[in-house]
Amino acid sequence: MRETLARFCSWLELTPPSRTLQTVEWAVPAVQTVHILAIAAVMGSMLFFNLRVLGLRGVDVPVARVSRRFVPVIWGSALVLLASGAVMIAAEPGRSLLNPVFQLKMALLLAALALTAVTARPLRHRPGYWGETLVRSRLARVLAGLSLGVWVAILCAGRWIAYVRAH
Amino acid sequence: MTDWLERLYETGWAAAIRENEIAFPWIECVHVLAITLVVGSISVVDLRLLGIAWRDRPVRRVLRDVLPVTWMAFGLAAASGFLLFSSNAPAYARNPFLQAKLGLLLLAGLNMALFHLWARRSVERWEAAPLPPLRAKLAGAISLLVWIGVVAAGRWIGFTMLSHS
To answer: What ipTM was estimated for this complex?
Structure first.
């Protein structure tokens, strides 16, 4: 597995798009800027959604309404993040794919997206879903708290990719 | 001018950030977290002022929901940014992208101050309308562009200062 990945990296490095990204000096910081702006959109959106679920902000708006405002932004930004992330991988395949912090980040990302889907989905057809029973309202708070923590961990992992050697 | 930069460079905490292997990246994590929260939250206001998103929520409600988050995150961004700056103050002070970033922050502050001064008198009249007046739209557009510039300048500081960007 590891060897296959390493071989894939050495192949990718030599492809023309990857070469171009390595030689055009402003390409990587420009793509990283797009990546960070999409992270900003995700972080703001997940924060206001989760704070609403926790009952800490904007409580005069129904949860389902806040979800409709912010959750589509999370999905849209996730696509931008995947696209810009893929370009960053193409520019320096070994730095990311072989890096344990990058692998951790991808696992955390799946968890965050799953948490978002699980929290937001029931609201589409039953706006009052999370308030219907005491157990549900507690569960919703746990999911929102977890989501906050996981997104922050993803962001930190992203920064640490630059500092941890791929092995 | 260079005097206080040298003194900052020689402080104990600046040396600690410089010499400790994990201090700089962790402060960077806080800094990036704070900046993404500043930009992610203020853009909610900007998009409302532009009449693009959350059009059915009165502007002052949006401001009340969002601005406390923006200010807290900004405080965190400024504090962590100062710590990163102090670790190598003289070199950072010479960096053109850091200078551009500070200039853009000044512009963001000016734009915000002018908007609040103007809006204080008129916001009641238009805050419920889905599409705010031109002045408000302009303030939202300027804010959005300036913060995008702040993020870009910040990213370029990393590339022009350090090998491990």
So the answer is: 0.94
